[in-house]
Specification:
By secondary structure, the protein is mostly helical. The chain contains 12 helices and no strands.
Length: about 230
């Protein structure tokens, strides 16, 4: 994360450095990002750069943190307004992310290139399916995973009993649907309405299931569960 010296810079200077970084991180995969190119575009010295950031990983963390803050603030606001309804939140997140893309079109490539690094991707730290997140001990200096963050804020009272303690598969599926829809929009912005409708259908499948309504079954998958009721 940036140093206090960076934080004390005038907003115009910070935005110049940020835009230069965004341009470079959108251009190439993470491993090929050039600090020399960033400082050239931002018109700063190499020495100045290292008084602001430890290196390109530190800078990448800052760019991701900025996006994360916007998403977290929106999630908090929406969940407070809708009483912790995860599916209502996910319905709204597509349009919110489209707004962010429209404001800064290269944002998608920046995120994609940063997470082209396996190390950065692993840092997302989504718990594996089958791990009851409430049973994992945490210390105050540990960063919570997305599943843990949502577990503390969404209303799980209407979930199936076997899903109430482990919502990580749900968070993974919702996030994948959102990312793939945003990728489609990035590649085909003219098809926005069709992509939005398909996204909402995906969230409704998560909300209601793909099969016709039937009695709640065991958490264990099996051939009987895979067939619709007669």
């Amino acid at each position: 994360m940036p140093t206090e010296r960076f934080n004390r810079l005038p907003e115009r200077k910070k935005n110049t450095i940020r835009r230069a970084a965004m341009k470079e991180f959108a251009r190439v995969p993470f491993e090929k990002v050039s600090i020399n190119q960033i400082i050239k575009t931002a018109c700063i010295s190499r020495g100045s750069f290292y008084t602001y950031f430890d290196g390109k990983q530190d800078l990448a963390d800052y760019l991701v943190w900025e996006v994360g803050q916007k998403l977290e603030n929106r999630c908090l606001k929406t969940l407070e307004e809708n009483g912790g309804d995860y599916f209502d939140l996910m319905d709204s997140m597509f349009d919110f992310n489209v707004e962010m893309l429209n404001e800064e079109w290269q944002l998608f490539d920046v995120i994609r290139c940063i997470f082209s690094s396996p190390e950065n991707f692993r840092a997302i730290d989504i718990p594996p399916a089958g791990t009851a997140i409430v049973s994992a001990a945490k210390t105050s200096n540990q960063t919570v995973s997305p599943a843990e963050w949502f577990f503390e804020r969404i209303d799980t009272s209407r979930f199936r009993p076997d899903n109430r303690l482990d919502i990580s598969p749900l968070i993974s599926l919702g996030g994948a649907a959102l990312f793939l829809s945003l990728k489609q929009y990035y590649e085909h912005p003219e098809a926005l309405e069709k992509i939005r409708n398909n996204y909402h259908r995906s969230i409704n499948i998560l909300r209601h299931g793909a099969l016709r309504a039937h009695a709640e079954t065991s958490a264990q998958p099996g051939p009987e569960q895979d067939r619709p009721p007669a």
